Every structure is written in structure tokens, then in C-alpha cells.
């Protein structure tokens, strides 16, 4: 019989993705893209290296937000209390 444990928390899911590129969306038009290097629980947040500030735009014709500009940053801490959405980016073939 399989053991039933607690479901994974957001911290467990983020820790599985350390070393991968991701986008943390803070607002409908603003976020950060970078490589996840650490997850902290107190304060709840993530550290991104090789980070970029991304500006997102959507229109009536294209309602899915698209990245329209990037500004280079080095490392950044993003508090999870201010994040609306996190997307893990996959390498294209």
C-alpha cells in the first residue's frame, strides 16, 4: 500500500526547478526572468541569477501577454508574497 503523505508545497515544487530558467510575474505588465538559484522560506522568496526585468504587453488582438522589452540585472530576490504567477521556461529544440 503506498504511503500517503502531505502534498508538496510551493517550496518543494520550486526546489525541484533549481537551475532552470523561469519568469516571475509580479504584475500584469511587469516581471523578472532568470535562473532559479535558491528558494527561501523566511522570508518566502526566490533568488534569480542572470536576471532580466521584463515588460509584458497584451492587446485585444493578442490577449496572451508577450515580452516586449528586457532590461539586464545581475541577481535579484523576489518575495513570493508579491508574485502573481511563476512560469518555468523550457529549452526549445
Shape, please? Answer: globular
**Could you give the order of the helices and strands?**
HEEEEEE
How many helical stretches?
Answer: 1
Helical residue percent? under 10%
Low-confidence stretches: none
Could you say which structural class the secondary elements and strand pairing correspond to? Answer: mainly beta
Distance between the termini: 40 Å
β content, as a range? over 45%
The pLDDT mean sits at 89
Largest sheet geometry: 6 strands, antiparallel
Number of strands: 6
Radius of gyration: 15 Å
3D structure, described in words:
This protein has 93 residues and is mostly beta strands. It is built from one helix and six strands. The protein has one helix at 10-16, and strands at 21-27, 30-41, 44-57, 66-72, 75-79, 85-88. β3 (44-57) and β4 (66-72) form a beta hairpin. It is globular and about 50 Å long.
Please name the defining characteristics of this protein.
about 90 residues, mainly beta
Amino acid at each position: 500500500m503506498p504511503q500517503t503523505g502531505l502534498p508538496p508545497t510551493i517550496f518543494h515544487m520550486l526546489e525541484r526547478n533549481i537551475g532552470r530558467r523561469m519568469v516571475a510575474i509580479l504584475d500584469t505588465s511587469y516581471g523578472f526572468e532568470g535562473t532559479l538559484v535558491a528558494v527561501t522560506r523566511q522570508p518566502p522568496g526566490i533568488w534569480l541569477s542572470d536576471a532580466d526585468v521584463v515588460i509584458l504587453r497584451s492587446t485585444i488582438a493578442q490577449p496572451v501577454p508577450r515580452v516586449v522589452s528586457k532590461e539586464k540585472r545581475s541577481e535579484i530576490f523576489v518575495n513570493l508574497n508579491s508574485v502573481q504567477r511563476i512560469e518555468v521556461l523550457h529549452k526549445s529544440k
